[in-house]
Write a structure and sequence with these properties.
alpha+beta, Glutamine Phosphoribosylpyrophosphate, subunit 1, domain 1, Rossmann fold, five-stranded parallel sheet, 18 strands, about 45% helix, globular
Length: about 650
C-alpha cells in the first residue's frame, strides 16, 4: 500500500509475494489492483470449493476482502444478513465479511468468530483494515518501508517483495532465548512486526500533505473475574453438562467443511476428547493421525490406539519420528517457522502434516488450548509447592531454594534483581518464570559480548503488554493462564507447532478448545475446577470419563516432545559441525566461541535427565537453531544446506 498517495505497487512485487506463499493456498490465487493499493490471495479451498475465489466484494464493489482462515458461525451469520436484504453469490464463509462491514463497520471485528486474518479495502473511505482472530491462530505480519506498507501471512511473503531487507533483530532473537517462542509483536527480522492476537489496524494513506495514519487497537482482550467473584460451582454434574454442550458445539462447527476433516490423536485427554466428540457427530470414519517417537519413554502410540479403539474410531495413521527424521526435517522446520525453533517435537508435527497432505486431506482437528485454559502444565504444580515455602511474610524461601540448587550444581544464574524486575512487570510470582528460566540460563552460558549487551538493555517480559491494572484483581492462577496464552500458545504452539508447520504442507488445523464460548466458560470458573489440589484439568477429566477410557481421562500430562540429543550424536551430523564451527559463529556474532566449543562436549559430563543437563541441551539446540535460521534467511554460507532464496529472486526480477 502506498502511504503517501495512489502510486501503483512496483511491477511484479505483489505477484512475487503471493507466489512465495503458494503452500498456504495452492488451489487458487487472486489479485486486486487499485490506485495506491494491491491485494493478493492464496486459497486453500475448504468451504465453497467452486465459488470461493478472492478477493471478495459486496454488491456495489466498494469493499474488497482477502481472507485466510475460517468463520465457524458463517451459516448463522449469513442467514441473518440475508434476512436484512444482503445478496450472496457464493457459498463461501469469506463473503459474509464485506456485507457485515456494511452493517457494522469497524465493530465487525467484535462480531466475528473463528480463526482468521484478513485485509479489507474500503474504496469509498480509502482505508485499509487488517486484523487477526482473538487467540492468534492465523498469522499476520506487516512492515513499513518508507512510504510503503506491506503485509502477509508469513514473513517470506514480505521478503519476496524485495522491499523488506532481511536483517536480524537481535532483541527478537533474545526473545527466543527468553521464552522458547516469539510471542510478538517483535520478530527476529528487523522492521517486521507480528500483529498481536485480537488486534486490528486501520491504515489511512496521506493526502494533500497530511501524513498517513496507522492506528492499532485491541478489539478483544483476555479477561477474568475478580478473585472471589468466579463461579464456585456447587453442582459438578451441571458444570460438566454445560462444558460438554459448549465443547460439542465447538467441535460441530469445526467439522463444517466441503472436504473430509481428520483429527490428530496423541493419546492424551485433550485430543482424545476432541476425537470422541467428532466421532459422535460424524461417525467413526474420521482419519486419525499420530506421531510415534522412536524413544520408548516418549512413545504415545499405545495410548493413542487405546483411545481410538474405545471411541470406535479408525486406528491412527502413524508417522515415525526419531533422530534421522529430526535431522532431516529441521531445515524445513526453520524455513516454515521463520524463527529459531528449540522444541524438537515441532519437526514431528511438520512430518505429521506432510502425512496428512499425502493422505489427500486438508483439515484436521487438534486439542491445543485445554492445557492453557485448564492449567495442564506440570510447572503449575511445582510453583504451588514452592509457594508453600513462602508462607512466612517477607521470607522468600522459594527463591533461596532455587538459587541454592543452581549454586550447588554450578549453574549460572541471574541476580535477584532480575527476578524482581520480571515479577514486577507481570503482576507478581508466576509459574512460567521458572519454566522459561531453564532456557534463559543459556544466555549466561552462550551469548557473545554483543548479545549480552542486547540482553542487558532489553526487557522481553516487559514487552508482553501484561495488563497490570486489570490483572491486580485476578486470582494468581489466572495470571498464569494469561501468560500461557500470550507466550506459549500464541508464540509457539500456534506458530512453530501449529499454523506454520501445517500450512507448509497446505493443511489447516482447527482448535475446538480455542472456541470463544469455551474460553469464556473456563475463564469464569473458580480455579478449583482447573487445579484441584495437584489434579490438573480437573473439570475436563470429569467430562472425559464420560467419553474415553479412564486411564486416558486420568492420565497425567505427558508433554509431547522428541529427544534433544539428535544434534549431539556421534559422529556429529555434518551440518551441525558446520553451523557451530568457529568461522560460522564468528560470522553471525551471536555466541561465545569458547563456551559453545566447551559445552558441545562438556554437557555429557552432567547427569542424564538432570535439570542442569537439560538446560545445556536446550541451550545448544537453541544455538544450532539460531545459526540455521541465520543461514537460511540472512544469506547462507554457514553450512552445506539450502537457504531460502525468495528475496534473491525478488532482487533479480
Amino acid at each position: 500500500m502506498d502511504l503517501a498517495g495512489q502510486r501503483p505497487a512496483p511491477p511484479g512485487v505483489v505477484q512475487r509475494m503471493s507466489r512465495a506463499l503458494t503452500h498456504r493456498g495452492p488451489d487458487e490465487e487472486g489479485f486486486l489492483e487499485r490506485p495506491g493499493i494491491s491485494l493478493a490471495s492464496r486459497r486453500l479451498s475448504i468451504v465453497g470449493l467452486a465459488d470461493g475465489q478472492q478477493p471478495m466484494t459486496n454488491e456495489d464493489r466498494s469493499l474488497f476482502v482477502v481472507f485466510n482462515g475460517e468463520l465457524f458461525d458463517y451459516v448463522e451469520r449469513r442467514e441473518e444478513l440475508a434476512a436484512e436484504g444482503h445478496r450472496f453469490v457464493t457459498h463461501c464463509d469469506t463473503e459474509i465479511i464485506p456485507h457485515l462491514w456494511e452493517e457494522q463497520r469497524e465493530e465487525t471485528w467484535e462480531r466475528l468468530r473463528g480463526q482468521f486474518a484478513f485485509a479489507l479495502w474500503d474504496e469509498r473511505q480509502r482505508q485499509l483494515h487488517l486484523g487477526r482472530d482473538r487467540f492468534g491462530i492465523a498469522p499476520l505480519y506487516w512492515s513499513r518501508q518508507g512510504d510503503w506498507l506491506l503485509f502477509a501471512s508469513e514473513i517470506k511473503g514480505l521478503l519476496a517483495s524485495g522491499m523488506v531487507p532481511p536483517r536480524p533483530d537481535r532483541q527478537g532473537l533474545d526473545h527466543v532465548f527468553t521464552f522458547t517462542a516469539v510471542p510478538g509483536p517483535r520478530t527476529c527480522f528487523e522492521g517486521v512486526q507480528l500483529l498481536p492476537a485480537g488486534h486490528c489496524l486501520r491504515i489511512t494513506p496521506g493526502t494533500r500533505g497530511a501524513a498517513a495514519e496507522i492506528a492499532e487497537r485491541a478489539y478483544w482482550e483476555m479477561d477474568f473475574p475478580a478473585q472471589g467473584e468466579e463461579v464456585w460451582g456447587d453442582d459438578a454434574g451441571a458444570l460438566v453438562d454445560e462444558f460438554e454442550g459448549l465443547l460439542m458445539q465447538a467441535v460441530e462447527e469445526r467439522l463444517r467443511a466441503d472436504v473430509p476433516v481428520g483429527s490428530y490423536l496423541s493419546g492424551g485427554v485433550d485430543s482424545s476428547m476432541i476425537l470422541a466428540l467428532a466421532c459422535n457427530l460424524k461417525g467413526p470414519a474420521i482419519n486419525t493421525y499420530t506421531v510415534q517417537v522412536k524413544e520408548p519413554k516418549l512413545d504415545e502410540l499405545s495410548a493413542a490406539s487405546l483411545s481410538a479403539q474405545h471411541i470406535g474410531a479408525k486406528l491412527p495413521i502413524v508417522q515415525e519420528y526419531g533422530d534421522r527424521e529430526a535431522l532431516e526435517s529441521y531445515p524445513r522446520l526453520i524455513e516454515a517457522a521463520e524463527a529459531p525453533v528449540i522444541d524438537t517435537s515441532c519437526g514431528a508435527l511438520l512430518k505429521l502434516a506432510e502425512r496428512v497432505h499425502a493422505n489427500g486431506q486438508k483439515v484436521v482437528l487438534t486439542g491445543e488450548g485445554a492445557d492453557e485454559w485448564l492449567v495442564g502444565y506440570p510447572w503449575y504444580k511445582a510453583h504451588k509447592l514452592l509457594n508453600y515455602l513462602d508462607i512466612l511474610p517477607g521470607v522468600n524461601l522459594s527463591d533461596w531454594g532455587r538459587r541454592g540448587y543452581l549454586r550447588l550444581n554450578k549453574v549460572p544464574h541471574f541476580p535477584p534483581e532480575w527476578r524482581a524486575r520480571v515479577e514486577s512487570s507481570i503482576g507478581g510470582p508466576n509459574a512460567w518464570i521458572d519454566s522459561y528460566g531453564l532456557l534463559a540460563i543459556s544466555k549466561l552460558r552462550f551469548y557473545s559480548g554483543e548479545m549480552r549487551e542486547v540482553m542487558n538493555n532489553s526487557h522481553p517480559w516487559g514487552e508482553l503488554g501484561f495488563p497490570l491494572e486489570r490483572a491486580k484483581r485476578w486470582a494468581p492462577l489466572n495470571r498464569g493462564i494469561w501468560m500461557a496464552a500470550r507466550v506459549l500458545l500464541g508464540g509457539h504452539l500456534l506458530q512453530a507447532k501449529g499454523d506454520r508447520v501445517a500450512m507448509h504442507s497446505s493443511v489447516e488445523v482447527r482448535y475446538p478448545f480455542l472456541d470463544e464460548a469455551v474460553f469464556d466458560f473456563t475463564a469464569k470458573l473458580h480455579p478449583r475446577w482447573k487445579l484441584r489440589g495437584f489434579r490438573d484439568k480437573y473439570l475436563l477429566r470429569l467430562l472425559a470419563e464420560r467419553w474415553i477410557p479412564k486411564p486416558i481421562a486420568r492420565r497425567g500430562k505427558v508433554i509431547f516432545r522428541a529427544p534433544l540429543d539428535s544434534f549431539h550424536m556421534e559422529p556429529e551430523p555434518p551440518f551441525v559441525a558446520q553451523l557451530l564451527s568457529a568461522d560460522s559463529l564468528r560470522r553471525t556474532g551471536y555466541f561465545d566461541l569458547k563456551e559453545v566449543a566447551h559445552w558441545r562436549k562438556g554437557f555429557r559430563e552432567l547427569r542424564a535427565g538432570s535439570l542442569p543437563r537439560l538446560s545445556v541441551e536446550m541451550g545448544l539446540a537453541a544455538v544450532v537453531a539460531t545459526q540455521l535460521w541465520h543461514h537460511q534467511f540472512m544469506g547462507g554460507g554457514l553450512a552445506d544446506l539450502p537457504e531460502w532464496t525468495g528475496y534473491n529472486h525478488a532482487a533479480s526480477t
